[in-house]
Every structure is written in C-alpha cells, then in structure tokens.
UniProtKB/TrEMBL annotation:
Residues 50-371 form the Glycosyl hydrolase family 32 N-terminal domain. Pfam families: Glyco_hydro_32C, Glyco_hydro_32N. GO terms for molecular function: beta-fructofuranosidase activity. It is found in: Membrane; Vacuole lumen. This is Acid beta-fructofuranosidase.
Amino acid sequence: MAISSIFLLATFSFIYGNAVLPIEATHHVYRNLQSLTSDSSNQPYRTAYHFQPPKNWINDPNGPMRYKGLYHLFYQYNPKGAVWGNIVWAHSISKDLINWTPLDHAIFPSQPSDINGCWSGSATILPGGKPVILYTGIDPMKNQVQNLAYPKNMSDPLLREWVKSPKNPLMAPTIANKINSSSFRDPTTAWLGKDGYWRVIIGSKRNTRGMAILYKSKDFVNWVQAKHALLSAQGTGMWECPDFYPVLNKRPFSIGIDTSMNGDDVMHVLKVSLDDTKHDHYLVGRYNIANDIFVPYIGFEDNQFVLRYDYGKYYASKTTFDDGKNRRILFGWVNESSSVADDINKGWSGIHAIPRAIWLHNSGKQLVQWPIQEIESLRVNPVNFPTKVLKGGELLQVPGVTAAQADVEISFEVNEFEKAEVLKSWTNPQILCGKKGAAVKGGLGPFGLLVFASKGLEEYTAVFFRIFSYQHKYLVLMCSDQSRSSLHKDNDMTTYGTFVDVDPLHEKLSLRSLIDHSVVESFGTEGRACITSRVYPTLAINDKAQLYAFNNGTANVKITRLSAWSMKKARIN
Ligand code: DQQ
C-alpha cells in the first residue's frame, strides 16, 4: 500500500552484625491489601509483561537487589487508590526479573521518623552479605529525614520482614546544617572507600540549585555530612532519586561492577531525576574518592547536551549491581499519560519499564541500555523477513504477531544521502520531532515502525529515524510520535525525540520496540537512545492492533533485518 494515500486516509549489624544496637520490629502488616485482584476484562491498557501491581498507584522503584539468588524489588505504592498518597514500600520477588511474586509490604509508617510516609531509598549489601535499606521518612512535622531498616531474619531469602533502627532518623535537616527540610530525600546505595567510610548521597536543592548532599559513616548508623556536596548545579531545581555508580571503561564494557569499585579502568555515572522537568539525566565522569570530587565530562552548564536515560516517559530510576550475572540493571518508573479521571476509572496508575542492562558505550561518552536478556524467554512465534528495499512512500505490514503485545527488531541501511533534508540551525530534537512527525514527508526518512496501528490508520504511534545534513555531517533524529496514537484526545500525546550519536554512513540504524498494550519502549541504534511512550488507542487495541514498517521519505532504504515476536504474558504480582 502506498504510504501517502494511507497517511491521507488517516489524516493520520550493623554493621550491625557486630555492633549491638537494639532493634525495633515493624509491627503491622497490611495483609488484606495484598490480596486484591482487579478485573482485567475491559482493561485494554493493562500491560501483559511490564511490572505493575494488581491495582492502585505505583511510582519509583526502590531498593532493587539480588539476595540469596532472588531478585527483590520494592516500589512506592498507594494501597488505597490510583493516585499518589499513603506511600508504603510494596515488595515483590523474582527469579528472572520477568515473573514476580508479591509479598507483604516491607516498609510502612510505624515510627515517628516515617509516620507521614515511607518515600524512596536504596539497598546496600554490606560485607558479609547483609542487606540494609536507607529510605526517606516523612516525620510528624513533615520534614524529610533518612532512616535505616534491615531484615528481621537474614536466613529468609524472601526478606519478608523488615525492622527499623531505633536510632532513626539517622540524617535530618537542622538549623545548623541548613538543609531544606522539604527537599532532602532519596538516599542512594552506599559505597565503601578504602578508608573504611561508607558514603551515600541524598537529593536536595538550595533555592534553585540542585544538589547531591554527601554523608559518610563508619558503621552505617552514625552519619556525618561531608563538607561539600558530591555535585550541585545552579538552576536545575530539586534532584530526586540520585544514583551514583561505577562503569567499566574497558572491554568487555558490558560487564557490571559493584557500586564500591573504583580504579583507573572505571568511570562514574551520576544520575539525577529533575523534579522540575520529570526527566532522568546522567553525567559521566571521574570520581576521586580521596577527596570525594566527581568531575563530569559534560556538566549541567552545558544543559542542552546533558544526556538522558530515556527521551520519553521514564523517571525516578535506580540501578543495582547483579552479582549473579555480573551486570548493572536499571529499573525505572513509567507514569501514565492519561488523565487522573481515567486512571481512577481504570483503578490503577503507573508501571515499571522492562529492566535494562546498562553499561558505558565504547566511546566512553554515553551509556548503552538494552532490555535484560530474560525478556526474550517471553518471545513466541517469530516472524522473520528477508532483506528488502522499502521504497519511498511504502508501508509494509508485519503479519502473524500479536501486535499489541510484541517485541520487534528492525535494521535499516541507508544510501541516498544526497536526499537528506538540510538542517540550517541546531533545533531542539523533541521540537523537531513534533514539527516533522511521521506524516510529514521527508528525504532520508522518516522510516521506522508504526505500532498500535488501527486498520485504516486512524490511530498509530510512529517510532522512526529521520536523517539530516547538518554542517557537513549527517545528524540522525529518533522520534516517537504519538500525536495520532488515540482518537481519545484527553491524553498527553507529546511527541518525543532525540539526536542519536551514530554515523549512518558506516553503521546500520537499528530499532527495537517492546510493545505492551499501552506502552512502547524503543531502543535506537543498539541501545544508544531510548524513548518510552504511553499511548491509549481506542481502535488499535488487543487483536485489532497492527504493526508496520514504513518509509515516508523520498529515498529508498534497505531493511537488512526485520524480526518480530508475539510476547507471552508474564506472571506479575
Ligand atoms: N517519589 C518519592 C520521593 C521521590 C519521588 C515519593 C520521585 O521520595 O523524590 O513517592 O518520584
């Protein structure tokens, strides 16, 4: 089918084991709230293989860790409804990071230092294998303070019960430390220096200066604020959910390393979730642990070049080192793009992205992310296309997959570079994607995938590349255009986009999309750029959804690989 007509048609111990601190048991488990199930009929937007609870509100992933061979994931959860509030740490476990079993809530308000909420935090595995959790509590005065919890029974691999330190809070805003009491939250996994000091950073801000406040401790209980923050940046606002970890800067780059590792072959990553923009930004740089100075290659002064994990909807993420498979895994929250009224109506809000392996690209300049390999165990009924030229204006249906629940990989080779559109001046890529959506004919592109497409293309979400000629080079734009994703216009349908650091003269342009009813997670050029979109089609739902490859440029492109799979449902909570 010619794409032009289609587009027209659609208008388209602690250390504690040794020290002897008394412990206070958590005393109330809300068992009744764990047994809720939701009616999944008439729920076209519920996902089949993304992490979500049976009902209600979910936000940040908390304290992911591997313990005694099991993965633990905690998350911010409202047991009482589909909007944020009444926050506890819900808890699930998994053997494969795909199928998850819910347990009783792990951490919930039970002492003054968290009586108004148990907010985000992280797990640290102490030498000897003891897991501990630092998390933010909201105290009776609504101050944000940092608390410690640890397992009641270390021999329980499920880590079902958590006790809280009677010394909580361990870190608190005071008049002396001048910490902003409403902007002091989300402790990271701690890392240990050779000097015997644990270090942890807490997100904060002073006026509009975002900061990662550094604390140090010898025993994980008594924490002292360091003289300076690990990093701060004027004008960035509150830094939520910081994450700080080492990545290997030599082959094999994809090997993950423990959070306390350092050395010549190691670079460090600081990720902050910017409350003002709701984006997760990261900086790659060198960390000198002797004086606790982190120097990023590109800092927030060069704002427009600060990278993001994901250029779509993806926030409050957190990594953990998986010592079972020697990899670093990234977990992130993907909020809804629907109205609060719609969320309340469907009875749930929020999902987590598919966990991603994350490592330093061999350029040393950016990270690479790729869905953990375990997700491939859900693939069934593969559909493989032979190499094929996709002519300018052509649309190619990918039949034989459950297009609302699929995994698809496609690679393009491009040649007719003289047809690339000229970009006169640098433009914000998201705005460029908004102006030049999939329906806007180009030269070299747009080409890519139409997912969640309805039969007559009244609805579709387009994930694509468009190549520009810019200052004697070629600039590759990757977009996720959801402007026509739904006939129901009450959703946030912002088009997302980013430039990708790839040389199209010498490299193929690959795209992988994980499609799951109301989410599409796309990985461009083997994970160098990611875009996650939430969409709510009204026609392209369940077995009515279709999948296409498309080319709406004048230049032909060659599809060198096109493989798609239907995805089985995972057992989630
Ligand atoms: N969510 C938590 C906070 C964190 C925010 C509260 C980020 O601790 O700063 O639910 O989404």
